[in-house]
């Protein structure tokens, strides 16, 4: 998403430079290693101050995705020194993470959000959460988006009953989604479905084991693919099947829809922002394997419905979620709010 934001800003005519490579991430609230990170952040502030004093400062500091594990340790001080506008995108705040170092991180985050000229939110869920925690902040919505060119270039030729998923194989939410998908497909042995899996990772063996008792030649493991390779696989598939446990929103859903696939996912977190229930796909209650299996079964059984949703899915991405529209919206947001900085 960060790379897409940079591309959209440039498309809108803004000059963008990545100011620092510092990683402020702290995996635990105990503060281990924090002193070194703080020292590195201070050094970056001084480095950029010297650079800007010699060559001129930018108009704004744009920080992507500050949150309790990774606060912005550079921008606020530079904003104070140089009188810059401060902008965040996809900031998030979680009351339940206020423990140890993370509580300090969130206090910093809240201060930055409150002072920002604008905080760009990619889902209503994030905006509402920030506004509840920091009601004095200024917020603007930006629809999640992709550059759909590679996916629109593919002429959809779906194989009947061909399911596809694209996801890394790692612990946590990704593994839980694979677990749910395997359980749901185990209920659909009466349908002649096939599943193509694009992705790889440390848990590939464990993921393959989840499907071992229902494989029987139904599943093709494609490993990691580049964008063109993913687009080609999507173009030959009929339904994008990924439960999406814990997904913030899921750009892969937009890529699948751009390729002309309806989606079957859970109605969790920000997924409803990128999949229109009963229009571009089917969304089921969180954690309900039976409902998820029933949704897959419905699309596998109703080709006319699948085709209607496939057409609507592609239209939705082109009209609402493409980078050209995002560039216009970003430009509008910045022009409206930069002049309102405190």
Could you give a short description of this structure?
By secondary structure, the chain is α/β, with parallel strands linked by helices.
Based on the model shown, name its key terms.
globular, Rossmann fold, 4-stranded parallel sheet, alpha/beta, 342 residues, 10 strands, 6-stranded parallel sheet, 13% strand, 45% helix
Describe this structure in words.
- This protein is α/β, with parallel strands linked by helices and 342 residues long.
- The protein has two domains: 2-145 and 323-340, Rossmann fold, CATH 3.40.50.2000; 149-320, Rossmann fold, CATH 3.40.50.2000.
- It is 45% helix and 13% strand.
- The chain is built from 13 helices and ten strands.
- The protein has helices at 2-11, 34-55, 75-82, 100-115, 124-133, 149-152, 173-186, 204-210, 227-235, 251-258, 289-301, 303-320, 323-337; strands spanning 60-64, 85-89, 118-121, 139-141, 162-166, 194-198, 219-223, 239-241, 263-266, 281-284.
- The longest helix has 22 residues, at 34-55.
- It is globular and about 65 Å long.
- The model has no long low-confidence stretch (mean pLDDT 94).
CATH class category of the largest domain: Alpha Beta
Beta fraction of the residues?
A: 5-15%
Q: What's the overall average pLDDT, rounded?
A: 94
CATH topology type of the largest domain: Rossmann fold
CATH architecture type of the largest domain: 3-Layer(aba) Sandwich
Which secondary-structure class do the elements indicate? alpha/beta
């Amino acid at each position: 998403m960060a790379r897409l934001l940079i591309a959209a800003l440039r498309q809108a005519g803004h000059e963008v430079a990545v100011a620092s490579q510092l990683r402020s991430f702290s995996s635990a609230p105990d503060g281990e290693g924090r002193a070194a990170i703080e020292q590195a952040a201070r050094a970056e502030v001084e480095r950029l101050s010297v650079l800007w004093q010699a060559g001129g400062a930018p108009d704004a500091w744009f920080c992507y995705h500050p949150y309790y594990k990774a606060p912005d340790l550079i921008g606020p001080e530079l904003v104070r020194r140089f009188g810059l506008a401060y902008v965040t995108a996809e900031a998030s705040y979680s009351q339940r993470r206020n423990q140890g170092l993370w509580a300090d991180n969130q206090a910093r985050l809240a201060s930055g959000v409150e002072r920002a000229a604008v905080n760009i939110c990619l889902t209503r869920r994030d905006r509402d959460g920030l506004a509840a925690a920091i009601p004095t902040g200024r917020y603007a919505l930006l629809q999640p988006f992709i550059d759909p060119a590679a996916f629109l270039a593919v002429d959809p030729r779906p194989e009947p009953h061909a399911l596809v998923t694209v996801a890394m194989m790692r612990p946590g939410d990704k593994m839980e989604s694979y677990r749910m998908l395997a359980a749901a497909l185990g209920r659909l042995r009466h349908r002649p479905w096939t599943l193509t899996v694009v992705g790889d990772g440390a848990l590939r063996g464990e993921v393959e084991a989840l499907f071992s008792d229902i494989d029987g030649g139904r599943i093709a493991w494609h490993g990691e693919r580049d964008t063109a390779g993913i687009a080609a696989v999507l173009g030959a598939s009929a339904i994008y099947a990924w439960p999406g446990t814990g997904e913030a929103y899921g750009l892969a859903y937009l890529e699948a829809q751009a390729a002309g696939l309806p989606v079957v996912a859970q109605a969790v977190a920000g997924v409803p922002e990128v999949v229109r229930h009963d229009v571009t796909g089917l969304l089921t209650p969180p954690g309900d394997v039976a409902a998820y299996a029933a949704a897959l079964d419905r699309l596998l059984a109703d080709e006319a419905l699948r085709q209607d949703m496939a057409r609507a899915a592609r239209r939705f991405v082109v009209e609402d979620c493409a980078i050209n529209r995002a560039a216009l919206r970003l430009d509008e947001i910045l022009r409206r709010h930069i002049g309102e900085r405190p």
